[in-house]
Design goal:
51% helix, mainly alpha, elongated
Length: 136
Amino acid sequence: MTKMKKAAIIFCTIIISLHGYGQNTNAYTDSIRMDSFRRAYQAIQKASYEDYKTMLAQLHIDSTRRGPSGNPKDANAANSDESKVPPYTLPDPLILNNGEKVTTAKAWWNKRRSEIVELFDKEIYGRMPANIPKVN
């Protein structure tokens, strides 16, 4: 072995042997630490849940919708199979809302594109309420 490999092995041995140095390995002390950690974690969970309930009450939300289950066999499973999606039709991008056909690029940019952007803003992004309460 080269001197460098020997030095590396000695260094690693020292690091491994010092890993527990200065730490109290008393099982009783460890259980006290874990118990206090568990209590702190439970207190944080409780405070978080109380904050959640308070926020629901402030927003006048009586119930929340259950999200999709990660279990594929559950009745409320998230759908990843496109064959289960009900049939739908998208609006023709080259027909204006009033039924006229788009025949020029100018009509597209000035009329139909703005209609599609408006639909996207309304249906995908959503709208803000007219009177939003001030948050302090």
